[in-house]
Amino acid sequence: MATTTSGDVLPKGARIFTTVPDLFFLPEFVFGGLVWILVASTRIFPENPLGWVMFVSIFCFIGTTLWFFIFLCGGNQSSIWPALDVGYHFVSAVFYLSASVELAYITLANGTLANSVIGQVLSEYLKIYRLDIAAVVMSYVATLLYFLHAIFSAIRWKRS
């Protein structure tokens, strides 16, 4: 009977592009980066109510980049890495969920403000409002991707 060792549980090199939980790396980059770009491109008053959203998007983007390169280089072959993989993606999913809720609340508040403004300023508020709506959608998609990655990583961890 063949046994699975901890060294062959997690993929390394180009195999990360063929395994189910690790296929989520690239969409996490894309949607997380879009949240970062969209939130950074808006002007918000009062100052910095979206600091948590920016922290989460930058933290998860950099963390996922590091995680991706560790997997790509094969530095993930000890027995602790499957649990770390689950933990990182679960924490990222919880962070993104909290950031998504805050972003949706602020977008809703900005939408009521955009409805009350008249004239030339209206187009500027509508532009910011539409960018915020796109950021909310991308943030919830990123939340879903991190959550799915955590679930499939947990399944892989339990199989090892």
Description:
- GO terms for molecular function: structural constituent of myelin sheath.
- Residues 16-158 form the MARVEL domain.
- With 160 residues, the protein is mostly helical.
- Helices cover 72% and strands 0% of the residues.
- The protein has one domain (12-159).
- The longest helix is centred in the last third of the chain and has 40 residues, at 120-159.
What's the total count of β strands? 0
The overall pLDDT average reads 83
**How far is the N terminus from the C terminus?**
15 Å
Number of helical stretches of at least 4 residues:
4
Percent in strands: under 5%
**Low-confidence sequence ranges:** 1-7
Tell me, briefly, the overall form. Answer: elongated
**Radius of gyration over all CA atoms, rounded:** 19 Å
Number of domains: 1
Structural class: mainly alpha
* Range of helix content: over 70%
Biggest sheet features:
none
Tell me the series of helices and strands, N- to C-terminal. Answer: HHHH
List the helices and strands and how they pair.
Blueprint: H1 25-40, H2 51-73, H3 81-116, H4 120-159
Helix pairs in contact: 1-2, 1-4, 2-3, 3-4
Main location: membrane
Transmembrane segments: 23-45, 51-74, 86-108, 128-152
Organism: Parambassis ranga
Q: Would you kindly provide a brief summary of this structure?
A:
This protein has 160 residues and is mostly helical. The protein has helices at residues 25-40, 51-73, 81-116, 120-159.
List the keywords.
mainly alpha; transmembrane; 160 residues; single chain; Myelin and lymphocyte protein; disordered N terminus; MAL; MARVEL-CKLF_proteins
